[in-house]
Amino acid sequence: MKKFFALFLAVLMIATCAATLSACKKDSGTIKIGLSGPLTGAAAVYGKGVANAAQLAVDEINEAGGINGIKLELKAMDDANDKTKIATNYAALVDWGMQVSLGCVTTQPALEFKTLSKADNIFFMTPSASADAVRAESNGYQMCFADKKQGVAAANYVNGLNLTKIGVFYQSDIDYSAGIYQEFRNNLNTGIEVEVASFTEQTKSSFESQVTALSDCTFIFMPIYYAEASLFMTQAAAVTTDIETYYGCDGLDGLDTVLDLTTIPQAITMLTHFKADAENAKSFVSKYTAKYGSDTLNQFGASAYDCVYAISGALKAAIEAGEEVTAETSASDMCEILKKQLNGGYTYTGAVTGTGTVQWTTDGFVNKDALVHVLKEATAQ
Length: 381
What we know:
Layout: H1 2-25, E1 30-37, H2 44-63, E2 71-78, H3 86-96, E3 100-104, H4 107-120, E4 124-126, E5 140-142, H5 147-159, E6 165-171, H6 175-187, E7 193-199, H7 208-213, E8 219-222, H8 226-237, E9 245-248, E10 267-272, H9 282-292, H10 299-320, H11 331-343, E11 348-349, E12 357-360, E13 366-367, E14 371-376
Parallel strand pairs: 1-2, 1-3, 4-5, 6-7, 6-8, 8-9, 9-10
Antiparallel strand pairs: 10-14, 11-12, 12-13
């Protein structure tokens, strides 16, 4: 009898352990969405905006009944915009039971995430990692414009301004800035003279020489991030130049969090897919600011909000088309279901980015309208 009881206890312990491990991998009842982004550090305004907006979308979808009754669950991990943290974050998210992902917020971490997720065939749609290479594998998609698209759109905009000379200020040692710059030059009218000044990670403590080099240009295109743009604009404002307008891409989002724009006499504009005062964005802005305030309100967060709704909508469309989607659907199966929808012409309507309608090309790049956002008008000098 003692032997039987001991055997019974052993079997019970094994069963309990197995159940515990299973629970660690996947809690029943929710579809789990993973995210890695900079919640601390210099790029935290991006990561916090993404995490907040994604959670807002998850909460709204759950309150509305989820995906045919299946609730969503979001887990955001901090990578501090450091690609060396991605392997650890990714492993933790997989162990948590991630079935679908928003990938990473910034490009270099996203490139690491792309490689890891390919092996497990986990679908991701990044809201803001814009490098073309992020979309190199079939399981990856973007809600933001890829760098190539931003470069082309920026060139098209400048081509229509009837300028004969412009300045360009970019960072030569990061894919984001160099990639946009190259596509911009490839698509810029050949009749426009271009004065170029650049910098690297090691030389960005002062831009006095670059300000001098571009001082006779009235229009400066700067496909860089807001911290570096802030320093250039501040140093340029302290000296006499001919600069009248700064024009950037999505990296300028957040500029007003580190710089008092009223101290800059020039006009500051940017290519964007999100304008807070656009009709299709007003409801999101109202809900976001009511819950999180305005400090982290940016296009990165708006894009993440759209990511969650697009994924939810694509899964609902798949169910209507006869696919089986449950809380227990494996990550790989979920990936194939979502790819079939997005590659098959699924249209996400009601977007807060672009003009409200989003589709994807068969190679995973987003297809929506680009906008020009005026951060501030020029002030009298």
